[in-house]
Amino acid sequence: MKKLIALSATLLISAAPFAAQAQETGGGCGLGAMVLEGKSGKGAQIAAALLNTLIIPNTFFMTTGGGLMGCDPTQTVKNEEVTEIFVASNMDQLSTEVAQGGGEYLTVLADLMGIADEDKAAFHVVAQQNYDALFLTDGDAKRVIESIETAMLNDSSLSKYAVN
Amino acid sequence: MHSLIVRRQLRIRQCSSSGILPTNRLAIALLALHLALFPTVTMAADTISSPGNDWQKASQAGRYDDAVAIATPQNGSDTPLAQLLLAATDLNLADTAQWRSFLHYKPASSGQWLSQVDSKQFFLSENGKTDPESELAATLAAFYATDAKPPLRLSAYCRFVARRYWLAEQLPEFDQLVPTQSCPEFDRYAEYLDAEVMTLIFPTAHPNSPSSAFGHTLIRIDKKDQRPESRLLNMSINFAAEIPPGVSGSAYAIGGLAGGFPGRFRLLPYHMKLREYGQIENRDTWEYPLNLDKSRVDLVLRHAYEMLISHFDYYFFTENCSYHLLSLLEVAFPETPLTEHFNLWTIPVDTIRLLGEENLIANVQFVPSSIRSLRTHRAQLEDSEGKLALAALKDGLESIDDSLSTLSPERQAGVLDLLSDYERYKRLKTDPSALGTSGRERAILSRRSKLGVKTVLPVIAPPATSPDRGHGTSRVGLQYHKLDELPDTIEFQFRPAYHDFRDPSAAFDDKAAIEMGLIGIAQDLEADRAFLRRFTLLSIESIEPRGDFFQPISWHTNLKWERPHIDARHEFTFNTGAGFAFQTSDDAPAVFVFGESDLVDAPGLEDRRQWRVGASAGVQWEPLNGLRMGLELDYRHQVGNNYYEAGAEGWLGIALAENWSFNVDMEYSKLPNVSTTSRLSAGIRTYF
Predict the structure, then answer these.
(1) Residue A134 exposed, middle or buried by CB count within 10 Å (0-12, 13-18, 19+)
(2) Nearest Cβ partner of B436 from A78, A91, A99?
(3) Contact, B523 vs B530, CB < 8 A?
(4) Which end of chain B is more exposed for a tag (fewer CB within 10 A), N or C?
(5) Of B259-263, B316-320, B507-511, B630-634, which range is least confident?
(6) Using CB atoms and an 8 Å cut-off, which of residues 60-79 of chain A contact chain B?
(7) Which of B84, B39, B76 is nearest to B59 (CA)?
């Protein structure tokens, strides 16, 4: 039957019916009541709900989607967010491509990690050789990225990328 | 250990309440990315003259209409705002297509303007929704406020950037008369996007889901000279309905059709959308880079920035994703309003066609879905190798150890690649939110990695015809029916949407059909009178062949009224059927068999309300491009009584040109107490 979709709207709008005061959404936090405590600040669960929404497909008639909602920020962006989001969202595709010795998503990761074109082939090989270290351990995107760095350290042509 | 990336310690408390919200690093990272794009900032206006002025106080307090009233030149004031208002009136800016495009004004039946935007905070004037002039005046007044007016976070100056840029261009005095404010969030947005080209993205239908045949459109923001793979990292703009959880199925359908849910623009990394459409939903995607120069791209993105805070009531047929993408692009083409072409309904592929007609499409690219890739991989393997993968799927990797070891590393790699494809497909089908690989997949991929072989991906040929080149979404036709024992008829048919098996199959999925609103009016040639021959509210058919891995259930449903001849009464049928289809190869005939159930209201029969069950079986084939044929046998029997219907129908559909087709149809029917009757029909259809 029809799949029901939980959207980040649920957090943004859950306290007030959406027909009533629509909240500003272009970067606005939404509802203070749903704010998480803790150092990371509010909105993490909004982002999480976003994921739930994004990944649950919608079928049957309407296209729905989630949205990025942010809250009052205190931090500035660093490229690691982009990398981490990319790896976390596409973990299975990357895992497959690492095992297969290369692919489009792995190339994007190499780009994000600053690997020059002439070193990409070595990057793919090193990643493939270290598949187990990268993916067989229980880890999230951060751990995967760290593991790649560790693996690169031990390769003569790639170690330069793993040094600050 | 050194690290490429500076680590940031983020600690959060587990959100315990609903259980639908795992806190995890990805969520934090996403948040951080978004925070970086849209930080709140405290604004310091550079200069603002003494805060004692009433009109400035009103503006700062968010009472923009009051500020306008106070500053209006008739009141004898010569304030900066008054000068601006005068200049704007002189130029009649409020009555321009450009201004109306920013506010999404459409003519209302009353003869006035009505904005399609449904968020109060989008309008700066109390009358903004219906009055372009008040809105423009209030906008000018609002630019003097450094405070944000709740629920907005930013001042109007920093939120309504498209309006501001345009007004500053039109009014030479603007820069001297309006104090500048710094808007770091917008600057960051523009810098991060670094936009050069906008690409229209069109995911087509899910397999076995003809209702999704209408597809979806979104826009990806591409950068200058980007590498092909980098497009995955670009941001995309998506318009969609937002539905709270706990909405029942019927509320979902009714709400979606009738504007019960808000539709919003969202900014998201493209790789996330591609995953959703291409991998989880298994939809092929077409990419159409648009021919907009940079200044137009920037204009659209400034307006998209404004739109992020607002919503439109979402109407599935009319104000849907594709309609509002057009309304977004329209700001770059105010003199040729794109949305004007879509009054009754908006079908995504038609919006692409329109952009093509306006010379806005540069070229087209195809991105295969996961399922298409999987099928291509399978086709590359030997039959025995494919079977190995399936055996491992069933009995585990170890069960094929011996067989694998007889293969070369390259062939082994092929088998393992296919196996991991299957495993992934199964995982996502069961749990679309699953992000990482399963244990089984990891074991397979670990083994695969040790082979040290590099997978060479086959080139997947795109379908010969892109979706915008298929036949038009609406059709009209003339059909001549020759019936034995009954007068001949000529029938005129009109069908607003979308595609059936007799229509030219180019650019369409030849396994799916969906029709809405088909109406047929026939002229009885003997009685010389017309009658309503048929009305099909909705008909959906999906014939998906089963294989050794994919085992879909084919299905169909329809709701229709039919009146076989002028002296008959209309018969209403609600049909559902489910069954199996088989096809040995893509070019071979597809054979199908269905179980059928009909709820019928037949006023012409003694037993008016009937439930009939039965079966149908048949074959469909397209032996040559543009030549389709089918044969179907049907049987229905009334439950609990004696009525039955049996029939056999054969048809031929010939594509004459992109938007013309010819069809021939022959049918035999048998009803109780009546000898077999036959019908021969031939007709022409044209599409637009």
Answers:
(1) buried
(2) A91
(3) yes
(4) N
(5) B316-320
(6) 60-79
(7) B84
Q: Is A134 within 8 Å of chain B by CB? A: no
Query: According to the model, what pLDDT value does residue B255 have?
Result: 79
Taking 3-state DSSP, the helix, strand and coil percentages for chain B, each rounded to the nearest 5, stand at 35, 30, 35
The pLDDT > 70 percentage for chain B reads 92
Please tell me the CATH superfamily of domain B470-687, with its number.
Answer: monomeric porin ompg (2.40.160.40)
Which residues of chain B lie closer than 8 angstroms to A86, CB-CB? 232-233, 269, 271
ipTM of the predicted assembly exceeds 0.90: no
* A157 vs A151: CA distance, rounded Å: 12
A133 touching B, CB under 8 A? no
Cβ-count burial of B190 within 10 angstroms (0-12 exposed, 13-18 middle, 19+ buried)? Answer: middle
At residue A17, does pLDDT exceed 70?
Answer: no
Tell me phi and psi for residue B475, to 5 degrees. Answer: -140, 150
Q: Which of A14, A101, A161 sits opposite B453 (nearest CB)?
A: A101
Contact yes or no for A124 and B273 at CB 8 A: no
How is chain A split into domains, by residue range?
A: 1-74, 79-162
Place of tokens 């208002």: B85
Strand B365-367 versus strand B644-657 pairing type: unpaired
The whole-number pLDDT of residue B431 equals: 86
Q: Which of B379, B373, B378, B380 minimizes the C-alpha distance to B389?
A: B378
Taking 50 as the threshold, does the pLDDT of residue A74 lie above it? no
Bridge-based pairing of strands B489-495 and B195-203 is unpaired
Rounded to an integer, the average pLDDT of B34-43 is 55
Structure tokens at B391: 């055996």
pTM metric for this prediction: 0.82
Query: Does A163 contact B at CB distance below 8 Å?
Result: yes
List the beta bridge partners of residue B600.
Answer: B573, B610
How far apart CA B281 and CA A91 sit, in angstroms, is: 17
Average pLDDT, chain B: 88
Inter-residue contact B580 to B602 (CB < 8 Å): no
CB-based contact, A122 to chain B, within 8 Å: no
Q: Are B362 and B389 in contact (CB under 8 A)?
A: no
In this prediction, residue A140 carries a pLDDT of 85
Q: Which residues of A touch B206 (CB under 8 A)?
A: 59
pLDDT for res B3: 34
State how far Cα A75 lies from the chain centre.
Answer: 17
Q: Is B459 exposed, middle or buried (0-12, 13-18, 19+ CB in 10 A)?
A: exposed
